[in-house]
Amino acid sequence: MQLRDYTWVISKSLTTLNTMDWEKVTADRNIYLTIPYLESLVVSTNKDVSFFYVIAYNETKDPIAAGVFQLMPFVYKKSSLSLNFCKDLVKEKNTDRNFTMNILCCGNMFSTGENGFLWRTDACTQTEACELMIEASKQIKNDSRIKKKLSLVLFKEFWPQSIENTIFKNYNFKSFNVDVNMILTIHPSWKGMNDYLHSMKTKFRSKANSAFKKSVDLNIKSLSFDEIRTYQDRINELFNNVLNRSKYSYGITYPSAFVAIKKALGDAFSFRAVFKEDLLIGFSTGFVQNKTFEANYVGLDYTYNVDYAVYQRLLYDYVDQAIACDANELQLGRTSELIKSALGAIPVDMKLYAKHKTPLTHLLMSSILHFVSPNTFELRKPFKAKFNSISTH
Q1: Which residues, at least 6 apart from 227, have a Cβ–Cβ distance to it below 8 Å?
Q2: Neighbours of 140 (CB within 10 A)
Q3: Which of 114, 97, 96 lies closest to 105, judged by CA?
Q4: What is the pLDDT of residues 338-371, one digit of tens each?
Q5: Positive or negative: CA dihedral 294, 300, 306, 308
Q6: What are the C-alpha distances in Å from 318 to residues 34, 201, 232, 288, 387?
Q7: Contact 135, 7 (CB under 8 A)
């Protein structure tokens, strides 16, 4: 591929983006790259986040690839050996044993999966599309204002068999794995929750029934965008309860996007609320696309979580939603791998590619990445033999 024959248009605003060319490439194939979704992010994120929209054109000026980059602060809160290394990589002042680096990310920081760019399969290959986006990242980071504060370029995150390591290795990116994506394959015979529960071994079906019994007094329902707006303050509180227990954050208040996303995407975006009488004590969000239900964020009031099995109940509700929308699989995302495996989900490694802005710190980063690996856990096998899930990834 002769990259000199190609051109890039990089827009810093959706108002200047050529949406017709964008949609010629994306063609509604990925919900996270649709204009309505991207608009909902822009109106909801704070001034610390900058977006860059890239369209690559071939020698005849036809759009052939499109991708989105986000420049945002990444705050790592975990106190560990890797943290001591990472402090050598960033110059920002840190407090409470935290450190912050500004990341230019191709991909969606608020979802798991390959949501950074798309290409026209009739016009270029995946390898060529990757190279086009890597070259675009160079153009973005060479802006003097961005170069000054940028720490890391990141491409996230790819399924294990999706892409050849050599594509990014040729550009001196380092690969690493993060916590696995827990995937539950929906068996064709499951027409409702009873079918799902009866496919389980007795021990795990009893655990599920226990969670349902504990949560019997709770009311779980879908909220409209008006209702999400009504409960916005409480939603933020529940979201932050979970975020505060996380080892990292993106430095933004993503819950403010829920109203806009629901209004823009309708039934393709799920917002489920858990009430104890009139009190909102938990919520979950998810997306429906391409026969897949993707779990997104949860928020919890931990005061009620154990006694009422709120988190477990939300996980089973994800299963219920996936079956109801005739999905082929439920992607439960990262974290809480043990409890998700008890639902029947199996781990799938996700690969990321990172490159620091200077050669010296890039070498230091290579040492750090040896310490970045998925959590270990004992995989549960809750299904009877004929229902064992096999991931297609």
Answers
A1: 273
A2: 21
A3: 114
A4: 899 999 999 998 889 998 876 545 544 554 455 4
A5: negative
A6: 24, 20, 22, 11, 18
A7: no
Structural domains in the chain, CATH included, are 3-179+349-369 (3.40.630.30), 182-348+378-387 (3.40.630.30)
pLDDT level of residue 15 (50, 70, 90 thresholds):
very high
Q: What is the pLDDT of residue 87?
A: 47
pLDDT per residue over 137-167, tens digit each? 999 998 878 877 788 899 998 988 888 778 8
Please give the structure tokens belonging to residue 343: 């639902």
Tell me the backbone φ, ψ of residue 127, rounded to 5 degrees.
-60, -45
- The tens digit of pLDDT for each residue in 95-143 reads 455 667 788 999 988 888 899 999 999 999 999 999 999 999 999 998 8
Whether the Cβ atoms of residue 305 and residue 339 lie closer than 8 Å to each other: no
At position 257, the amino acid (one-letter code) is A
User: Three-state SS for 317?
Assistant: helix
Q: Is 45 helix (H, G, I), strand (E, B) or coil?
A: coil
Token pair belonging to 240: 């932050």
3-state helix, strand, coil in the chain (%, to 5): 40, 25, 35
d(Cα 380, Cα 201) in Å, to the nearest integer?
A: 11
Is the pLDDT at 294 greater than 60, yes or no?
yes
Residue in 40, 80, 56 with CA at minimum distance from that of residue 265:
40
Residue % of the chain over a pLDDT of 70: 84
Query: Which residues are CB-neighbours of 186 under 8 A, at least 6 positions away?
Result: 322, 323, 327, 328, 329, 330
Task: List the one residue out of 238, 235, 243, 244 whose CA is nearest residue 262.
Answer: 235
- The residue assigned the tokens 């998925």 is 374
Q: What is the mean pLDDT of residues 327-346?
A: 91
For residue 128, which of 68, 58, 54 has the smallest C-alpha distance? 58
Angle at 209 (CA atoms; ends 278, 206), nearest 5 degrees: 155
Nearest to 163 by CA among 356, 392, 366, 350: 350
Contacts of 176 (CB under 8 A, 6+ apart): 351, 352, 354, 369, 372, 373
Q: How many residues does the chain have?
A: 393
pLDDT the model gives residue 371: 47
**What residues contact 163, with CB distance under 8 A and at least 6 apart?**
126, 130, 351
Pairing of strands 7-11, 174-177: unpaired
